[in-house]
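User: Some background: our group keeps a shared notebook of sequences we're curious about, and every so often someone picks one and asks for a predicted structure to add to the entry. Today it's my turn. The entry only has the sequence so far, pasted here. Could you supply the structure so I can complete it?
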Amino acid sequence: MKTYAAVTGNEAMAEALRQVNPDVCAAYPITPQTDLMQNFSDFIADGRVTTEMILVESEHSAMSACIGASAAGGRVVTATSGPGLALMWEMLFVASGMRLPIVMPVVNRALSAPLNIHCDHSDAMGARDSGWIQLWSENAQEAYDNLIQAFRIAEHPRIQVPIMVCMDGFIISHSIGMVDFLPDEVVKRFVGEFKAQDTLLDVTRPVSYGPLVLADQYHEYKAVQDAVMTDVFDVALSVADEFAEISGKRYGLFDTYRLEDADFGLIALNSAAGTCKDVIDEARKAGFKVGLLKPRLFRPFPYQQIGDALKHLKAACVLDRADSYGAYGPLFTEIASSLYPYATKPVMINRIYGLGGRDFLPADVFSVIQEVAGTLETGVVPETKKYISLRK
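Assistant: Of course. Here's the predicted structure to add to the notebook entry:
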């Protein structure tokens, strides 16, 4: 029987970690991740898990400790936000290059300067090329479900790659919503016992971690690392199928909403997708044939599948909660790449929203819908990239 509870996103993720009961957690507090780890440390202090908690002096040290514990053969977790993820930068590449299946919730937060503790996607977008799998979550329920599935994906014998599960800071991490929790025994059975591969402590089969590799082999090593990521699609879908059997909720590489018969579409990550869905319902009543695509798996990126889902549209607006300054937004460039092979493709525009926690309101969504609809009506294409909801 499922247990329904009104909890924050941080509490939902902490509950998932409690149910999995990892071997080691090394973490450092940073807003808005802090009470995720605080809740989990309460479980440790109360004896509800057997996890070894390592207190460190920085996020760089947190990831370093996770790397050591994972290489030694443990099931390992951590969590971070914004500047904390940036401070881990060097070690993110070490974790993925060593093929260590570390699981890390990322509570998305803006990066300095200026100093800002609120939500945007600059942190995880900056880490998109670090070799980590990325799952994105619209709400607390998806954050909980994604985190449970993350262990199965990362630890799959064909994968063995670290994974981050992203959730919008404050908007989801600190907002209370209804979440249906799976029974402990169901989660434990689904995740299964951890089976470490090629550990440093296995004296019967010695291995080397982090050796010096120069030009004679480094190039080939990275080609293998890239090839492993292409296996993630099948594994993620297989894990999602199994998760649907125990939860009744089905996840894919992405989610669509009223997109199949749409003339134009919106593409958005995380909590903004929920706002878009509500406005799309109202816009449909007003005669706008608009739909939504919400990516779930951002790394590796399912170019072919997303291109097939969007190719019938006449126009599309990609909404980015991060910017690649002097270029288009990071989500826009991925979506544009997915449509590149098609001879006929939608007109595309990029709108930057919500940086540093700026509210993304229904009126903002509707104005974008009107803008795209106007493009189809007049044939006049507006500037490709623009910031919306700017103060005058």
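Suggested note for the entry: Residues 362-378 form the longest helix (17 residues). The first strand starts at residue 3 and ends at 8.
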